[in-house]
Amino acid sequence: MADAVTRASTPDHASNSEMLSVDQAQAMAEFFAVLADPNRLRILSVLAQQETCVQDLAMLTAMSESAVSHQLRTLRTCRLVRYRKRGRKVFYTLKDQHIQMLYQAVAEHLEESNEQS
């Protein structure tokens, strides 16, 4: 009888192996916390379009180069962006396709939400 109650209260598609562990949930929360900064999101919006140097990011975001560098350091630590040096300039881009897809999915979701309002 207890098994029937457990099965009835547990959706077929959900299982303990699919649920996040406490450590996974903490890591995901920390990841999303990094994305919760508007300046970092503005930087990511530029990098989602093209590779860009620190100086151009500063100009496009109306932030100081120092502030942009600080935000990029945080994004780099969380493996959201990568960089390459060419001479004295440092160019940044999104780390990989996963980050690009995440950014695009959120942007599309928000656009759809605005259209439905």
Distance between the termini: 46 Å
> Into which percentage range does the β-strand content fall?
5-15%
Strand sequence of the main sheet, in spatial order? 1-3-2
Gyration radius (Cα, Å) is: 20 Å
Which term fits the overall shape? globular
Total number of beta strands: 3
Q: What's the tally of helices?
A: 6
Structural class, please?
mainly alpha
Could you spell the SSE succession in H and E letters?
HHHEHHEEH
| Average of pLDDT | 89
Helix content, binned percent: 55-70%
Question: Could you give a short account of the major beta sheet?
Answer: 3 strands, antiparallel
Low-confidence stretches: none
Report on this model:
- This protein is mostly helical and 117 residues long.
- The chain has six helices and three strands.
- Strands 1-3-2 form a three-stranded antiparallel beta sheet.
- It is globular.
